[in-house]
Amino acid sequence: MAKKWIVGYVLDQHHNGQGYMSEALQLFFDFALHEVGIERLEAGALPDNIGSIKVLEKAGFRQTGVQSIVVNGILKEHVMYVIRLKSNQD
């Protein structure tokens, strides 16, 4: 069975749209795969968080469905995503 991590991130809204999360995800992918051996990453976003959804899809995540997750004691629907990492040698 493949190892997996669940990815989460937060960025101050004043820095949205500047590519920081896209760049950080690429660095994170390299670390997860080559330093730790993680092959699968999962992430979720609120359906109205278009910016986060765009970041995930741009990074190569694919949508897998919807899941209810408790956040601060409130049940919220999240759009779920997954990406399988591959080394350049695959």
What does this structure look like?
With 90 residues, the protein is of the alpha+beta class. It has helices at residues 20-36, 50-58; strands at 4-7, 40-45, 62-71, 74-84. The protein has a four-stranded mixed sheet with strand order 1-2-4-3, covered by helices on one side. It starts with a strand and ends in a 6-residue tail after the last strand. The model has no long low-confidence stretch (mean pLDDT 90).
- Can you count the helices? 2
Q: Measured on Cα atoms, how large is the radius of gyration?
A: 14 Å
Shape: globular
Say how many strands there are. Answer: 4
**Fraction in beta strands:** 25-35%
- Ranges with pLDDT <50 over ≥5 residues? none
Order of helices and strands: EHEHEE
Distance between the termini: 17 Å
What is the mean pLDDT? Answer: 90
SSE class: alpha+beta
Determine the fraction of residues in helical runs and give it as a percent range. 25-40%
**Largest sheet at a glance?**
4 strands, mixed
Strand order of the largest sheet: 1-2-4-3
